[in-house]
TrEMBL record:
Residues 53-235 form the Oxidoreductase molybdopterin-binding domain. Gene3D superfamilies: 2.60.40.650, Oxidoreductase, molybdopterin-binding domain (3.90.420.10). Residues 260-388 form the Moybdenum cofactor oxidoreductase dimerisation domain. It comes from Prunus mume. Keywords: Metal-binding, Molybdenum, Oxidoreductase. This is Sulfite oxidase. InterPro entries: Ig_E-set (IPR014756), MoCF_OxRdtse_dimer (IPR005066), Mopterin_OxRdtase_euk (IPR008335), OxRdtase_Mopterin-bd_dom (IPR000572), OxRdtase_Mopterin-bd_sf (IPR036374). Residues 1-27 are annotated as: Disordered.
Length: 393
């Protein structure tokens, strides 16, 4: 593709915030301290987790950059940035979460394979760009189309990004055509993040945002879009990011028995405390995030200050001053919900949080019950230990 630099230019790493916890240097994977996540509803770009499968591409000739749309359609087309910017611009507030968020905690049960994420492989941003439904209309696919005349039922996104899992080929993923052509699904070709031009870490100059779905499907550094019959056959759709039962290991795994993971399940995390915190006796306020996939709201967050014996309901909010009501028009359905709860703590204890979404899905109590060999979708109750000291604190 014109305007894309060769591997020798990949050594130019983008500037990054010094507080990021680096989980892997090559490819670069990093997350912010958990306390940074609850300091604001919209996550600053600096504190948004960085997830990569290969070297970070440099696309520097923006005028020659284009996205080629082809496949089972009548009018294949090169779209340049000016064409995409000419479409109506939408701002969608959406939380992205890596399927491997909280993998480190799952690996304490049994070893898993993957980047060791703590609890911050998640962030909430305002993405600006064109709706994919509008883009596909430019190549003759009407809104709310489930199949093209020539049998296209899935939309595959192919990245500039090259990765070893694809034998040096591009990273790719797909979503169903009916989701891509549904304006209500808010799938974007995004060129802005939090009101600024996307930076290199987050997919400059153009990335896909698929709200409510695991981050692996929101392809960065978009190169081309293919309309295809079956879902994408790439590594990260077929041999990764699938949910297996605890009985499956690397000797008996059969990837074809599971569908690629799309929506993420209900999740919540306490962010105001690290795992073992020394605190003074008295009132303790905790804050955290809760989110669910598929546009489902957060119905409630239950918090226990005594290891799960008794529970109180946390208060929930998105923007200050606007009450959060699950599934309400005033609430942003693709975005996380922040929560807080306060209790009197006089002795060392375990504080636990669990969220319930608008479909009454609840987080599983124990990580052992959802252990899987890839360590994805750890949505077990989140627990932090607190040590109460009565002197020298």
């Amino acid at each position: 593709m014109p305007g894309v630099r060769g591997p020798s230019d990949y050594s130019r790493e983008p500037p990054r915030h010094p507080s990021l916890q680096i989980n892997a240097k090559e490819p670069f994977n990093a997350e912010p301290p958990r306390s940074a996540l609850v300091s604001s509803y919209v996550t600053p770009v600096d504190f948004f987790y960085k997830r990569n499968h290969g070297p970070i591409p440099v696309v520097d000739d923006i005028h020659s950059y284009s996205v080629y749309i082809s496949g089972l359609i009548e009018n294949p087309k090169h779209l340049f940035m000016k064409d995409i910017r000419a479409l109506p611009k939408y701002n969608v507030t959406a939380t992205l979460q890596c399927a491997g968020n909280r993998r480190t905690a799952m690996s304490k049960t049994r070893t898993v394979k993957g980047v060791g994420w703590d609890v911050s492989a998640i962030g909430n941003a305002v993405w600006g760009g064109a709706k994919l439904a509008d883009v596909l209309e430019l190549v003759g696919i009407p809104k709310l189309t489930g199949a093209t005349k020539s049998g296209g039922k899935h939309v595959e996104f192919v990245s500039v990004d090259k990765c070893k899992e694809e034998n040096g080929g591009p990273y790719k993923a797909s979503i169903p055509l009916i989701q891509a052509t549904n304006p209500e699904a808010d799938v974007l070709l995004a060129y802005e993040m939090n009101g600024e031009t996307l930076n290199r870490d987050h997919g400059y100059p153009l990335r896909v945002i698929v709200p409510g779905v695991i981050g692996a499907r929101s392809v960065k550094w978009l190169d081309s879009i293919n309309v295809i019959t079956e879902e994408c056959q790439g590594f990260f759709m077929q041999k990764d990011y699938k949910m297996f039962p605890p009985s499956v290991n690397w000797d008996n795994i059969n990837w074809s028995t599971r569908r690629p993971q799309m929506d993420f399940p209900v999740q919540c995390v306490i962010c105001s405390l690290e795992d073992v915190n020394a605190i003074k006796p008295g009132k303790v306020k905790i804050t955290g995030y809760a989110a669910s996939g598929g546009g489902r709201g957060i119905e409630r967050v239950d918090v226990s200050f005594d290891g799960g014996k008794t529970w109180i309901e946390a208060s929930r909010y998105q923007r200050t001053g606007i009450p959060y009501i699950s599934e309400h028009t005033s609430s942003e359905k693709w975005a996380w919900v922040l929560f807080e709860a306060t209790a009197d703590v006089q002795q060392s204890t375990e504080i636990v949080a669990k969220a319930v979404d608008s479909a009454a899905n609840v987080q599983p109590e124990k990580v052992e019950d959802i252990w899987n060999l890839r360590g994805i979708l750890n949505t077990s109750w989140h627990r932090v230990q607190v040590r109460v000291g009565h002197s020298n604190l």
